[in-house]
Amino acid sequence: KDKNGKAKWVCICDCGAEVVAAANGLVTKHITSCGVCSKKANGLKRRKQHRKTPLYRKYWSMIDRCQNKSSKVWDRYGGRGITVCDRWRKSFDAFVEDMGIPGPKMTIERIDNDKGYSPDNCRWATMQEQQRNRRDTVFLTFNSQTKCLADWAKELNVTPQALSYRIRNGYSTEDVFTK
User: Whole-model pTM above 0.90?
Assistant: First the structure.
């Protein structure tokens, strides 16, 4: 609500920009975009304004880590052969068309960490989902169920560090899960 008690909504425009809009403007359809993407905005102005959106920053961050040898994370991406498909590298609009607009706090995730960024290998994911899809994630199998260490810890109501300790110190599989 604003200072006068009128309802306000946090909205995400089709371009990825976040906007706070008056509820009555949304209901009456006087507000239909962030303003940058209105039909009156020409392509150049739109492209410049996209630079300010979280989605545009995610897009360029993806390209940077795969192409810029000076990137702090180059060794984990471009340095090990992770690339961005030509369609996305050449066009932000193509990237948005293929991926859609992410929900709040979503990040781009490669389904197969050994493959590059492309429509068939990417999805929007939460940070928790991302953490479970890392190359160094430890998976454990017990009673015919395979889960990552963090999921087992949550299920067993112990810390991940406790399970790691048990594994490092040679506990039997049974004891890792039942002690």
Answer: no
Strand-pair category, 145-148 with 139-142: antiparallel
What gap in Å lies between CA 111 and CA 128, rounded to an integer? 14
Nearest to 67 by CA among 53, 86, 51: 86
Helices 149-156 + 160-168 axis angle, to 10: 110
∠ CA 152-158-163, rounded to 5°: 65
pLDDT number for residue 32: 72
The identity of residue 137, as a single letter, is: T
pLDDT of residue 64: 94
The span from the first CA to the last CA of the chain, in angstroms, equals 51
Q: Give 147-163 pLDDT, tens digit per residue.
A: 878 888 888 999 989 98
Parallel/antiparallel/unpaired status of strands 122-125 and 107-110: antiparallel
